[in-house]
Design a protein that fits this description.
5-stranded mixed beta sheet, alpha/beta, 18% helix
C-alpha cells in the first residue's frame, strides 16, 4: 500500500470535494499490539472506503463501504508451504537487495502519497517488479498507522504490504478500466479472472478501487463490483479498499508460467479497479 502523505499533485489521484479526515490514534496501535501475540506482524492502514465479506454473514455477500466509518481485520494463520512476510520501503531503506529479500509471488502493496518525489519513488519500487513473476496489486491509501517506523519522516511512510510466496501460491488479477461503467461490463471483466483457472478452494479475493468509482460512478447503484465478483466467485471472500490510485494489471501467476508484459507506468492507474485472486494452496 502507498500512504497518501508521500505524494504531491499526482494526475491519477482522485480528490473528493469534501475531503474526509481519517482518524487513528496511538491508542489504536497500542490496543492492537496488546490484542495479538508479540510474534504477530500487524499492518494497519486507513483508506477512504473498504470492501469486506462479513464473517457473520451467512450469505457470504461482500460489501462496499464508502460512507461513514467502518473497518475490518484480516488475519493469516501459519500455513504450511506458504510464506507471508510484511515489507516496508522508504527512501532511507529501499534498495534492490531489500526488494529481493521481500520476494514473493503475490505482493499487495500500499503506498502513502502527495509529497515531492513520491511518484518517482513508487516508480522505482514498481519498475523491477513489472517484468518479474510477481503479482502486484494495491493502492494509494490515506495513511499507514502500524507498525511505527523511525526511518520515515512525519507524514511520509512510503510503501508497505505483504509478500506471499511458496510453491503452492498462485495468483491472478484483472483491471477494470475507466470505461467499464455498468454492472454487465464489470461482470464480463471479472469473468476474465475466472478464465485464469485458479483453484477456488483456499482462495481470497482482493479489490483495490478508485474512490471515484463506487455508487457515484455507477449512477447511484451500490455494491456493483462486489456483487459482480460474487456472481462469478460465489464461495470466495472478497476484501479491499477504495484509494487515491490503483496499482496492478492483467496478470496470471501459476506454478508453471506467468502471463503479463508491462512496465512500471502500466501498473499505475486512475478511475479503475484492480480485482485479484490469491490461492494459498
Amino acid at each position: 500500500m502507498v500512504d497518501s502523505n508521500t505524494f504531491n499533485g499526482q494526475a491519477f489521484c482522485y480528490r473528493q470535494n469534501k475531503a474526509r479526515k481519517i482518524r487513528q490514534s496511538p491508542d489504536t496501535v497500542e490496543e492492537l499490539n496488546h490484542l495479538f501475540p508479540g510474534s504477530c506482524d500487524i499492518l494497519g492502514i486507513a483508506a477512504q472506503g473498504i470492501v469486506l465479506t462479513p464473517s457473520a454473514c451467512h450469505s457470504g455477500t461482500p460489501m462496499e463501504y464508502q460512507d461513514g466509518e467502518a473497518g475490518y481485520a484480516l488475519m493469516f494463520p501459519s500455513i504450511e508451504g506458504v510464506n507471508i512476510r510484511p515489507f516496508h520501503f522508504c527512501k532511507k531503506t529501499f534498495s534492490q537487495a531489500a526488494l529481493q529479500e521481500a520476494g514473493g509471488q503475490c505482493q499487495p502493496p500500499a503506498h502513502s502519497a502527495y509529497k515531492t518525489g513520491g511518484a518517482r519513488f513508487l516508480n522505482l519500487v514498481l519498475e523491477p517488479l513489472a517484468k518479474s513473476k510477481a503479482l502486484i496489486a494495491g493502492g494509494i491509501v490515506e495513511n499507514v498507522f502500524s507498525p511505527a517506523r523511525r526511518c520515515c519522516g512525519q507524514g511520509a511512510y512510503g510503501v508497505v504490504g505483504l509478500a506471499l510466496s511458496g510453491a503452492r501460491v498462485q495468483g491472478a488479477s484483472v483491471l477494470l478500466e475507466e470505461d467499464v461503467s455498468s454492472p454487465r461490463e464489470a461482470e464480463a471483466t471479472i469473468q476474465r479472472l475466472k478464465a485464469a483457472g485458479l483453484p477456488e478452494r483456499n482462495t481470497l479475493g482482493f479489490m483495490f478501487a478508485c474512490v471515484g468509482r463506487g455508487h457515484n460512478f455507477y449512477g447511484h447503484l451500490g455494491n456493483v463490483e462486489a456483487d459482480a465478483f460474487r456472481k462469478v466467485f460465489p464461495h470466495t471472500p472478497l476484501f479491499g479498499l477504495f484509494g487515491n490510485g490503483e496499482i496492478g494489471c492483467d496478470r496470471v501467476v501459476k506454478q508453471d508460467y506467468t502471463l503479463c508484459d508491462g512496465d512500471a507506468g502500466g501498473l499505475q492507474h486512475a478511475f479503475t479497479t484492480v480485482m485479484t485472486l490469491v490461492h494459498l494452496g
